Amino acid sequence: MAQRLEQQAGLTDIQLDHIRRLEQACNAFEGLTMKLNWGRLRRRPTGQVNDFLFFEEDELAGFLALYSFSQTEAEVSAMTHPDHRRRGIFGRLLSAARQELKQRNIPDFLFICEQASRSGLSTMKSIGARYEFTEHKMVLAQPVKPSTNPQFEMRPAGPEDLAEMVRLDELCFGISGEVTRRHLEEGLVDLGRLLLIAAIEEQTIGKIQVTRIGSEAYISGFCVYPAFRGQGYGTAILTITAERLVAGGHHNITLEVATDNRRALALYERCGFKVVTAYDYYRLAVTG
After folding, report:
1. Residue 88: pLDDT above 70?
2. Of 7, 96, 197, 204, which is most buried with the most CB atoms under 10 A?
3. Main-chain dihedrals φ then ψ at residue 15, nearest 5 degrees
4. Using CA atoms, how far apart are residues 79 and 36, in angstroms rounded to an integer?
């Protein structure tokens, strides 16, 4: 059987179609909702290898994707076709990804493993990856009007808001300034992403980001300064964002939240979101 491993810096439409069909096969086999970050897959930088595709004949049998948001770790989504498992495909993909991260001096893998995936959990155990945390995936089931209506404005962010957004991410998420600045700069010029600022007159109170792909929309980077929490602003910002997305034809709206962030989880539920699955994150040293 002819086999080949492709290491890609950027993905073609044909390769994306192969990945989509492999995702569908894996999801159907175990009843999953795999996290592949399609917005980034469609906009991969052409100067950096992030995607590894393993073909048997002309069928994509395995796929591994790297998402490096910082220099300390690379998140990993990986899958093997149910008909091609137990043939060492994941091991070959992982070996190739390990060599890539060694060249980039990134020390850790951070694997994304859906809790419902028995095969995924077994793989994490077999490679010695260490559990770190869990996130819920939530979808908007029914938009809910906020009980309060605080007065503020929401507008698209511009370059002049960059420093303020960096401060928000550092304060609310503990992300280093260099990492969040690079990510936010990309968001300001990416047509598929929308950064919004919530402000009272000239004072920024929070921000939110939306990644849009067809009828789908993914909400992230949502935060409010501590001084403005507990006053209805968070609920209003999220609700207004969801209403605008639905009005724009985006009917599949999702977000993710750490399972131990009870305050945020309660806020999202008040706004009409419900939990549909959970992703466990596992850490493994690249040189291990």
Report:
1. yes
2. 197
3. -65, -40
4. 10
Tens-place pLDDT, residues 212-250 = 888 889 999 999 999 999 999 999 999 999 999 988 999
In the chain, domain spans: 3-136+281-285, 143-271
Tokens representing 222 are: 């949502």
Using a 10 angstrom Cβ sphere, with 0-12 exposed, 13-18 middle and 19 or more buried, the burial of residue 164 is middle
Assign domain 143-271 one CATH number from 3.40.50.1820, 3.40.630.30, 2.60.40.3080, 1.20.1250.20: 3.40.630.30
What is the token pair recorded at 41?
């897959």
pLDDT bracket for residue 147 (50, 70, 90)? low
b/e map 217-251, b = 16+ CB within 10 Å = bbbebbbbbeebeeebbbbbbbbbbbeebeeeebe
Task: Please state, in angstroms and rounded to a whole number, the distance separating the CA atoms of residues 234 and 225.
Answer: 10
Strand partners, 219: 210, 255
- The pTM score is 0.88
Q: Say how far apart CA 152 and CA 167 lie, in whole Å.
A: 20
Residue 271, pLDDT above cutoff 70: yes
- Give the containing element (helix H, strand E) for 212: strand 203-213
CATH classification for the domain delimited by 3-136+281-285, as one of 2.60.40.200, 3.40.50.620, 1.10.357.140, 3.40.630.30:
3.40.630.30
Q: Residues 13-55: pLDDT tens digits?
A: 999 999 999 999 999 999 999 999 888 898 888 899 999 999 9
- Give residue 167's region: left, alpha or beta (phi > 0; psi -120 to 50): alpha
Pairing of strands 130-140, 216-224: unpaired
